[in-house]
Structure formats: C-alpha cells, structure tokens
Amino acid sequence: MPGQTNMVTCDTKGRIVAFDIQEGHGDLRQRILELGRYAQSQSMGTLPIQVFDREGAGAPFFSQLVPDKTPFITWEKNANQEQLITLQEADFTDSITVNNTPYKLLEQTKTYTYKPETVANTQATEHRFELRRVVMQNMRTNHRISVLCWDAALKLSLQDIALGMLSRWGKSENTFKHIQVRHPYHYHPGFCVSESKKQDIANPQIKVLERQITSTQQKLAKLYKEYSKAKPSQKQDGSERMNSLHKRLTDAIATEEANLKKQKDDKAKLPERIDVSGLADYKAFKTIDKEGKNLFDFVMTSVWNARRLMLDLLEDLYANDKDRVDLLYAIFNCQGWIRSDENWVVVRMEPLQQPSRRYAVTSQ
Q1: Which letter does DSSP use for residue 234 in this model?
Q2: CA 109 to CA 128: how far, in whole Å?
Q3: What secondary structure letter does DSSP report for 63?
C-alpha cells in the first residue's frame, strides 16, 4: 500500500503546470474535476482541455465532467473492435500525421445515458448527454482505435482531438516517464508521520464474492455447453425421465443461476469500504507529512520547466529531435567560466566537437 501518490499534470510541451501529493493511492478523477473547476474560477478565457487515459473513462465520470463544463479527451474504454473494423474505409475523410505516422480520421456521435444510484428518500435524475467520438486508423498497421471528447463548444477539429490524445503518449518525450531519468523524483525529504484521518480499507468481502461469482459463471458456462448437446429422455407416457442427463443439467443450471443471483445481490448490499479502526490489535494508518516534499517538488518542477524552455530555444537551431535533449545536457556539462559585473553576465564555454552542435550553441 503506497503511502502517497503524486498527481502530476503537464501541458503538450511537457511542462509541469500542476502537481498534488495525495495520501494513499490518490483519486485521479477527483483531481481532474478539481483542476477543471480551478480553471473556470480563474476566468482563463479559453478553457484548457484535460487529456487522460482509460482510468478516467466511463459514463459515471463523464456525467460529472459535462455538467461541470470541463472539456476532456480520453480513449474509449472497451470499444467494440468488431464494430470499428466494419466501418467503411471511404468514410475516413480526414487525416493527420503524428511522429511520422499517418492516421485517417472519422467522427461519430456517441450518446450516453446515466442514472446515479438512488439515495434514501430521493429520486435520481437520469442524465443523457452526447460525446464526440473520433475513430483513428493507423495507416502503417491498419489498427483502429477510438477517442471520446467533450469540447464545451470549443469547436475542436478532428485533427485537434486526435493530436491531443496522441500527444499524451507515444514517441514524443513524456514528462511522467523521463523526469525520473534526470531527477530524484521519488526523493522525500523527511518522513514525519501522524495518524491519518482515513482509517478505512476496501471491503475484503467484496473480493471474496467476486471470486465466487466468477467461479459460478464458469460452472454455468460449462453446464450451458453440456445442456446444448443433451437431449430429453422421455417415458412411455411422454413425461421426462427424472434421472436423465437433460433433467439433471436443467436442475443444476437452475441451482447455479439462483446461486449467482444471490451472490450478486449480496455483493450489491456490501459497502465498498469499511472502517477498521475498531478492530482488536489495530495499528492505525499513518499519513506522511508532505510540506518538505511539496517544496522539493516545486523547485524540481521549476528546474524541469526551465529545461523545457531551453529545449524550445534550441528547436530552430538544432533539427535532430531525438538528440536535442542530449545536446542540452552536453552544454550543461561543458567546461567554462562565468564572469559578471554591474552590466553584464558573461558565460564562456569550451566548443563542442560536432559542427551542428557547436553552431546551435554559438548561435543562441
């Protein structure tokens, strides 16, 4: 059980724009909602679009984002691959190239209907909403995948939506992955602990019932298969023999179906989390003080974003994308000296050997 989770948000350039250290596993969905509300409170004009992975997908969460007026782009979770394959090639009328990979694009509309669980003495209202659905076909592999978007009337093009999703992961440098290569991202200065206000855990009985449900479903699948091959055996009077294979399978299926219904009903009645502070010999969960970690991450974020800015400055002077990061660190490791007076700060460095690298440094 991790003690803390660092929630990091970056822009399309890879610059960190926000981070939050949360206790335990953290709550990604709640963090996305908070950032959306914060953006609206700042009167930013054009709202930023939040791009996240499949962990945030699903009608319940989408039903929160749309009323909150939080624009988002995400992969469609559990998309029907057979349906994607049957889409006509001629309908993919738009295209985009990302990281030298061409894609063809097709837009559809997907309608969601979500009704929250009813609470005592209240009536839940059904929420019906529409999302933009963009199907992308990788022209190198012919693989198709779908993306969902709600753009809050920003009128994003298909290319904007595809680029937003494809820029999150892929061959481009990614903040979440590469920041740990150069910086001690997991370093935590000090581990002062205190008793946590959260003393609950996921209900273990739910996992027990989930295993029982899976086992029962497997039994039923086997019984259904045997039942499809069994033929009724009848007596002379036309009634079915009580000891026939068909009759035994019918009774077994009825029993297992009743068991499955009971198991699902029992699971639905259980609370998702339970408080364990009252257990005998209980050792309370501790929370780790994060003041020092926040300060460390703030400084590291500033360093990382300055690095990103310097890479942008090198972009027009050094064409090799894959080698630009190495060039920057080669500059950092150069021998030289710095002199300053009232008017100037003079930096002098040894020349780099490769002409293209030397040109990029001297031109800047």
Answers
A1: B
A2: 13
A3: H
Tell me if residue 19 falls in helix, strand or coil. strand
Q: What is the DSSP string of 141-180?
A: T--EEEEEEE-TT----HHHHHHHHHTTSSSS--HHHHHH
Length of the chain, please?
364
| Residue-wise pLDDT tens digits, 8-49 | 888 888 889 999 988 877 888 999 999 999 988 887 778 899
Provide the strand spans (E) within the chain.
Answer: 4-10, 16-23, 50-52, 72-75, 94-98, 101-114, 127-138, 144-150, 193-195, 200-202, 273-275, 286-288, 336-340, 345-349
Q: What does the alpha-carbon distance between residue 181 and residue 184 come to, in Å, rounded to a whole number?
A: 8
pLDDT of residue 2: 60
C-alpha 214/C-alpha 217 separation (Å) is 5
CA gyration radius, the chain: 29
> Cα(244)–Cα(230) distance, rounded to whole angstroms?
9
- pLDDT tens digits, residue range 276-293? 776 766 677 777 788 888
**pLDDT value at position 125?**
81
What is the rounded distance in angstroms from the CA atom of residue 15 to the CA atom of residue 309?
9
The CA distance from 24 to 7, in Å, is: 12
Percentage of the chain exceeding pLDDT 90: 36
